[in-house]
Amino acid sequence: MLLEQLKTFPKEVQDTFQKICNQLLASNYICKDKKDNTKAYYFVINYQQYFDEFFEILGDEIVVDKDLYCVQLKNNYSQGNLRLKKEETYIALILRILYQEKIMNTTLGNVVQITIDEIHDKYQSFGFKRKMFKTELVSALRLFKK
């Protein structure tokens, strides 16, 4: 078993492995673009087989997207999914659409920025009868930030 080999590694490597496992369990993603996650991303790449074996025991799998420089923890039993309210779902959809539109017009190293006005404009363009309230938007963005 690979996990038995991990016990023979230096304490620093074992601690980093634990920390990253807990980080993945808490947030499901590690993206290299985020300043604090660069070392964690490369650690997962270097020790991927150990992460694969560890999370396989839990019924999860590690998905590495080397094009987006992102690591995802995927649950194969559909547990721990987040149920969104209708307005939160609309906002998530709008953010995805705006992101896709902007990513087509940027180069690889650029960061995509979406403004509140753009979200409101896209929401209005869908023709919803009701106006999106600031509190709903702020609440949804805080939820997505987690």
Proportion of β residues? 5-15%
**Rg calc:** 19 Å
> Largest sheet at a glance?
3 strands, antiparallel
Q: Which shape, going by the Cα principal axes?
A: elongated
Average per-residue pLDDT, rounded, comes to 85
* First-residue to last-residue Cα separation: 34 Å
Structural class: mainly alpha
List the secondary-structure elements in sequence, H or E. HHEHHEEHHH
What is the tally of helical segments? 7
Low-confidence region ranges: none
Helix content: 55-70%
Would you report the number of β strands?
A: 3
**Biggest β-sheet: strands ordered side by side in the sheet:** 1-3-2
Short characterization:
Helices cover 56% and strands 10% of the residues. The chain is mainly alpha-helical and 146 residues long.
Search tags:
single chain, 146 residues, mainly alpha, 7 helices
Overview of the structural elements:
With 146 residues, this protein is mainly α. 56% of the residues lie in helices and 10% in strands. The protein has helices at 2-6, 11-27, 38-46, 48-58, 86-103, 116-125, 134-145, and strands spanning 29-31, 60-65, 70-75. Strands 1-3-2 form a three-stranded antiparallel beta sheet. A hairpin with a 4-residue loop joins strand 2 (60-65) and strand 3 (70-75). Helix 5 (86-103) crosses helix 6 and helix 5 (86-103) crosses helix 7 (134-145). The protein is elongated and about 60 Å long. The two termini are 34 Å apart. 10% of the residues are buried. The mean pLDDT is 85.
